[in-house]
Design a protein that fits this description.
about 160 residues, 8 helices
């Protein structure tokens, strides 16, 4: 496997995961919105500018997206006590519960379907291999800032 193959595999798997977590009939979340949500989840109480810097998105887009998502209940905002001109953003307390619930949706059948005409025993082996890779990466790459770490409550002291 080379870097491009790995990158493409990641994109395919991410799309399959997104489709599995999207409620029936719900629109697809644009990548920029997803980036902002993931960043705010990993770095609570960040300013709009900090989110823009980390995501590489224009500050105006981050600001508009945060305002829209605040209206939808996904974000909470407040003025920075140290600098009232800055807005601090954090993910609403209801979002991690929703993310955690959607993240528990089994995807074995979705993956097997995505593999097309692959023989069932081969498809099952491939899903098992992906499960093992995910478990190993979770063990070695998890930690502060990771969604799994935050959902476990281990990151509560950093808030």
């Amino acid at each position: 496997m080379n870097a491009l193959d790995l990158f493409q595999l990641g994109r395919w798997l991410a799309k399959i995961g997104e489709e599995a977590m999207r409620p029936s009939g719900a629109p697809e979340t644009p990548p920029g919105v997803r980036l902002i949500l993931m960043d705010a989840f990993a770095f609570p109480d960040s300013s709009i500018g900090e989110i823009a810097t980390r995501t590489g998105l224009p500050q105006s887009y981050v600001s508009e997206t945060v305002a829209r998502m605040r209206e939808q209940g996904a974000f909470q905002t407040r003025s920075d006590p140290a600098d009232g001109r800055r807005t601090l953003v954090k993910v609403s307390s209801t979002v991690p519960e929703t993310v955690a619930r959607l993240g528990t949706i089994p995807v074995d059948d979705v993956l097997i379907k995505a593999l097309g005409d692959t023989p069932p025993e081969t498809a099952a082996d491939l899903v098992a291999a992906l499960t093992a890779v995910a478990a190993q990466l979770r063990a070695t790459r998890g930690g502060p800032g990771s969604i799994a770490h935050r959902l476990s409550g281990a990151g509560d002291h950093a808030r």
